[in-house]
Amino acid sequence: MSWEEQWPGEPYQVAEAGRVPDASPFRVALKRSACAAAAEIETLRQSAGEVLSYESRADAVAKLIHAVDCPGLRFQEPAPNDPADVDAYLVKVREPRPDAASRGDPATGWTFDTRAQQVGALAEALFSAYRYDPPPIVAYAARELERDPDSFRVIVDDDPDRVGGLDPDIDGAWHPDAAFTVRERDGTEPGGESGRVLKRYVAEVKHGSTSFERNQRDGMSRLARRDDSLDVLLVRVDLSGIPQTYDLTIRSIDDVGLPG
Hints:
- This protein has helices at residues 3-6, 32-37, 39-48, 57-66, 100-103, 116-128, 135-145, 163-166, 214-226, 253-256; strands spanning 26-30, 51-54, 73-76, 88-92, 152-157, 178-184, 197-207, 230-238, 247-252.
- The chain is of the alpha+beta class.
- The protein folds into two domains: 3-92, no CATH class; 116-256.
- The strands form two sheets. A five-stranded mixed sheet has the order 5-6-7-8-9.
- β7 (197-207), α9 (214-226) and β8 (230-238) form a beta-alpha-beta unit.
- The longest helix has 13 residues, at 116-128.
C-alpha cells in the first residue's frame, strides 16, 4: 500500500490546526476529501492548483477553514515521505452525529463545531450589541472627524435597509451588516439623536479574510461616491482573543478600494 493510500489515516485522528507548525510562506495541499465536501475548495483547486501558499498558518486558517461553510475541514500534518513541499494538508473529517442517548447528559458538556455563519454573527454582535457608541466606531469617527469623542454620539442601526433602500438609484444587492449615524451632542436629549449629523457610515463586518460577493461590489462603491457624508466601511475582526479582547481593522472603501 502506498503512502498516499495510508494517509490521512482514520477520521477523527487529524491534528488540530493549531498543532501544525507555522511557516512563512505556509503551503497547503488541498486533499480530495476537502474538495469533495466543499464546492468553494474544489473551485479554488481548479483555479489555483492543488497546492496554495499563504503568508502564515493563521492566514491559511482564516481563508480555508473559517471562511468556508463546511464543518469538519481541518489541517493535518503531511506524511513524512510525501515528496510534495507542503506544510499541511486540508482534509475533511467525518462530522460525528451521535444520537441523543449516546451524547450523554448535557449538564456534563457537549462540543460542536462552529460554522462560518456563526463566526460571522459573533463578529457582527460586537457592534449590534450596542444601541449607542460602539467603541471601535467612536474611535474611528473621532480620528476621522478630528473631534473629541465626548462631543458626539454614535447611534447604531443593526438592521439597515438594503442599498436600494438607502439610495433607490443603486442596485440593492448589498445588505449592510450595520449602519452608524454620528451626531453632535447638543445637550438637549439624553439619547443624542437630535444633534446635527456629522457623518454616516454603513459597514460590512467580516471575520478573517472572507470576501464580498461579486454582485455586491459595484453598488457599494457607487453608494460611497454619491454622498460625501456617507462612508462605506469594511471591518475585519479577529476573534482569537475572545472573550478577553478582539482585534479589528476598519478601512473606508474610498481609501482602499473594494477587495474580493
